[in-house]
Amino acid sequence: MAISKDFHGGFSRFFDQPTRDTLRDLLKYGSGEANQFDFKEIWPEKHKIAKHILALANSGGGALIIGVKDNGDLEASGIPPGGKIDKTDVAKQVSAYLPRSLKFDILDFDYPIDSEYAKIKGKSFQVVIVNCDESELPYLCCKDHPELKSNVVYIRKRQESTEANHEDLQEVINRRLKSGASTPSMISLKEDLDQLKTLYKEMDSFSRLIPIESINRLLGYKPSQYAPEESLEEFVAELIRLKKEKIKRDLGISLS
């Protein structure tokens, strides 16, 4: 979906200075979603709010804007009567899913009937502003739910909040490393990932070699009584398994 330059600029101004004027400009030039923000006509369920907050934080920060229909173009419908939420109540309910270091705020925007932009006259919106401290990445979900998994990293991808795969997780970790906030544990993690890459390359090389057992049989050699029971390929495969388990433990990801 194409996003106009005015929309990109409008969002940057709004995120830097969330006011009624900058939100008005964002809605005026809006033409669809992007990874940094999400639009909802009404408030999602609490666990879904938590998922969006986690995904936005792991993707560099952003905003969840309530009161906007998205049918390809944005329609500033406003929050329906009785549809506003109590900010303190929501913060308490979603906090169980979020790390304490993840910061967000919920803002109210009410437009008078004499607003200069006709489509938002007399309408109300609520916005969740999600911050990202790259020194705290990755932000992991802290509580299970039928639609959420604890100890899992969620990100924004193709305008959706979704579970990170291996490559996504590496990108999140690299952003933390580039921030200069590399703790000893994160440095160790980078070393582990580099070692894992080396092991995978070594495993790949085995597929291009003739097994030594086949060569020995062809030449009539018998294995030494001191030869190890497992092959080098089996040994490397076991190292890969153990290294992956260590990385998951270090990230606090469940091994089940």
UniProtKB/TrEMBL annotation:
This is Schlafen AlbA-2 domain-containing protein. Residues 33-164 form the Schlafen AlbA-2 domain. It comes from the Bacteria. It comes from Paenalcaligenes hermetiae. Gene3D superfamilies: Schlafen, AAA domain. Pfam families: SLFN_AlbA_2. PANTHER family: GLPR-RELATED TRANSCRIPTIONAL REPRESSOR, SCHLAFEN ALBA-2 DOMAIN-CONTAINING PROTEIN.
